[in-house]
Design goal:
Elements lengths: L1 E5 L5 H15 L1 E6 L2 H18 L6 E12 L2 E12 L2
Parallel strand pairs: 1-2
Antiparallel strand pairs: 2-4, 3-4
Length: 87
């Protein structure tokens, strides 16, 4: 499964395009976000991506969980969005 990292400065429309492309191809993708601003961008990206894939008959299903990731040799807690195609 492909993992996409979302930062506070990420453009939600660009993330949505990448998310939609991966879901169409692989049926599943994970977004990882650390911090409130990054989570906000990730949620916006998921909503925008839904608009991209809905006309193709693809419904996005999202499961949210915590994940431990390493950034600069330091362990951080991230929010993990597991997004699947729910045709």
């Amino acid at each position: 499964m492909e993992h996409l990292k979302v930062a506070a400065q990420s453009n939600p429309k660009a993330v949505a395009g990448a998310l939609a492309a991966v879901v169409e191809k692989e049926k599943e993708v994970e977004l990882h976000a650390v911090g409130a601003a990054a989570v906000n961008q990730a949620v916006k990206a998921i909503a925008i991506a839904r608009g991209f894939v809905a006309p193709k008959g693809i419904n996005l299903v999202t499961v949210i969980a915590f994940a431990k990731i390493e950034i600069n040799s330091e362990e951080k807690t991230a929010i993990k969005f597991i997004i699947q195609s729910g045709k």
